[in-house]
Amino acid sequence: MTSQPQAIDLGFVNAYLLATDDGFILVDTGMRNQRADLEKALVKAGCTPGNLRLIVVTHGDIDHTANCAYLRTEFGAPVAMHAGDASMVEHADWPRRRVTSRSLRLMHTIMRFTGVTRRMGAGFERFTPDLELAEGQSLESYGLAATVLHTPGHTPGSIALADGGLICGDTIENRSGLHSTRIVDDETQLRASIERLVAMDPGTVYPGHGRPFSWAQFRAAYERPRGTEA
């Protein structure tokens, strides 16, 4: 990115703060129980009410959106995301996506039957996005020379931000190894999104989960013959 993202580690999920000439842009917001840690990190970086210009959401899942409504009120920043995921935050409507990992599939089943998923949704502060982001859109009017890439697959409205580096949301993870998301809404769309990113030269990649990684690592992990598993 023109402004190198400052990673905010919120446990199992990342938020990213980008400095502009006249303020900051925050990408993703973590879970509600991480709110104090997020606010502390923002203030430490000099991001305070009045100079947070925009909150960008890479997709509508609760671990990326749970603090959006609060931050919009407290910091006075509009929230921007792709229209494809708007219903997720307006109605706490998280679609039941295909989980490709056995361990994650078991975890999701347990969460549903024990009521964890329901309780997470019940405490969610719903909101309507202020700005819809679309493929090819520039954020220059907010002081950031970054372009929006629509990268559906994990969710219908997943996006990435590209400008030298790449903030990729959950399309790619780097926790227990470098791999595409294992929670999939549409496998065909996900593969197309991955292949699109492989064709780029994004420099450093900043994932929603796990540590940033280099372009060389990205290409080695994902440049596969067509039809093979990413």
Count of spatially separate domains: 1
The CATH topology: Metallo-beta-lactamase, Chain A
How many strands, which pairing sense, and closed or not: the largest β-sheet? Answer: 6 strands, mixed
* Largest beta sheet: strand ordering: 1-2-3-4-5-7
One letter per element, helices H and strands E, the order comes to EEEHEHHEHEHHEEEEEEEHEH
Q: List low-confidence stretches.
A: 225-230
The CATH architecture can be given as 4-Layer Sandwich
Number of strands: 14
CATH class: Alpha Beta
Q: What proportion strand?
A: 15-25%
Share in helix: 25-40%
Radius of gyration: 17 Å
CATH-wise, what's the superfamily? Ribonuclease Z/Hydroxyacylglutathione hydrolase-like
Mean pLDDT score? 88
Overall SS class: alpha/beta
Distance from N terminus to C terminus (CA atoms, Å) equals: 25 Å
Number of DSSP helical runs = 8
The shape is globular
